[in-house]
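Kindly go through the following sequence and its backbone structure tokens. Advise at your convenience whether the structure tokens fit the sequence:

___
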Amino acid sequence: MSKGETIRNHTVSKTLSVPLRFIGAQELMSTAPNAYSGFLAKRGRRERLVERFNLPNKAIFNDIKKWRKRFIIISQGCVYIYDKEISSRPHQSFPLYGYNRISKMGSDHDAFTFRLEGKNGGGFKIYYFSTATDEERKVDLHNY
């Protein structure tokens, strides 16, 4: 998150086992209790693939290597990842149930990079995020 952007904290009334699939970011923020909303950088499939091939540090590859800025909403025990704050449906969404580890990691991207992992591997996808400050990285997802 850059300076001037805010994080909204609210009380969660119930936890969903399956995220809502067709809900816009603005609609979710206005109708569902939001535990967290804001911008994070996210490493996706494209970035992992590029890193695996260890491409040379040339200008042509720099754009491909950049982590994408995404609008994240954590509400009712689910994570919603939107392309923009005004997107009409999530790019990705998943329930937080089963995710129990947030690990700080060193990264080329920046010092405030972390990964979200499930219980003992357990077939859970690992998500990689980066924040602008260490305080944002320390958000306790177990409260949501």
Observations:
- Residues 1-12 have pLDDT under 50 and may be disordered.
- The chain has one domain: 25-138.
- The helical segments are 25-31, 45-52, 59-65, 134-137.
